[in-house]
């Protein structure tokens, strides 16, 4: 499997399904964010993120998942964002950020058994979205990290330098335009 990641998406009834192949990083988080927001706006309240073939997840990607889960919790207490098949490393990456209260993680592989095969056959690439420009990309990464800090104060020490750098970078970008 290549280092680069790809995202496949689909819907099964009222469940939005995302399957990540390869790496889940800031480089492919833009299409994830657009898909999740679009499904949320269309009334979807169940989200499944399948990380079975994901060999690494970064903080930006996790921040996008958290933002979606937090937005969902505000809209519908029955709604849920669930990560399935995370593997030990990805599970640890999400858990150490203290997000278990909003992002449900199924490490056992028992959730959504019947649906997995149906979905696997019907996933496709997200609709072609215009790639984010540099400023939008930086803003997305900044938003994701600010969400992680808001989710758990312990994350402030992990990401304060990243957030400061991104703010300065964003200022420089907007000054250049």
Task: Please give a structural write-up.
- The chain has a five-stranded mixed beta sheet, with helices on both faces.
- It is an alpha/beta fold and 177 residues long.
- Helix 1 runs parallel beside helix 2 and helix 5 packs antiparallel against helix 6.
- It is built from six helices and five strands, in the order ββαβαβαβααα.
Order of helices and strands: EEHEHEHEHHH
CATH class category label: Alpha Beta
The total beta strand count reads 5
Distance between the termini: 39 Å
Percent of residues in helices comes to 40-55%
Regions with pLDDT < 50 over 5+ consecutive residues?
none
Q: Based on the structure given, which CATH architecture is correct?
A: 2-Layer Sandwich
Task: Please give the largest β-sheet.
Answer: 5 strands, mixed
- Percent strand equals 15-25%
The CATH topology label is: Transcription Regulator spoIIAA
> CATH superfamily, called what?
STAS domain
Which of globular, elongated, flat, extended, rod-shaped describes the shape? globular
Spatial strand sequence of the major β-sheet? 1-2-3-4-5
Integer count of domains = 1
Integer average pLDDT: 89
How many DSSP helices? 6
Structural class: alpha/beta
Structure keywords:
single chain, 177 residues, alpha/beta, Transcription Regulator spoIIAA, 5-stranded mixed beta sheet
């Amino acid at each position: 499997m290549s280092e680069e990641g790809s995202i496949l998406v689909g819907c099964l009834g009222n469940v939005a399904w995302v399957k990540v192949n390869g790496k889940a990083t800031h480089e492919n988080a833009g299409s994830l964010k657009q898909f999740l927001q679009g499904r949320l706006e269309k009334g979807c309240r169940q989200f499944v993120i399948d990380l079975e073939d994901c060999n690494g997840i970064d903080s930006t990607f996790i921040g996008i998942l958290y933002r979606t889960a937090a937005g969902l919790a505000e809209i519908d207490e029955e709604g849920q964002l669930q990560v399935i098949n995370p593997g030990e490393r990805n599970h640890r990456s999400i858990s150490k950020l203290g997000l278990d209260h909003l992002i449900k993680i199924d490490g056992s592989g028992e959730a959504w058994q019947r649906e997995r095969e149906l979905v696997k056959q019907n996933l496709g690439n997200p609709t072609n979205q215009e790639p984010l420009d540099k400023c939008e990309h930086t803003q997305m990464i900044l938003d994701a990290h600010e969400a992680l800090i808001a989710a758990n104060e312990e994350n402030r020490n992990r990401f304060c330098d990243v957030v400061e750098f991104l703010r300065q970078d964003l200022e420089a970008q907007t000054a250049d335009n």
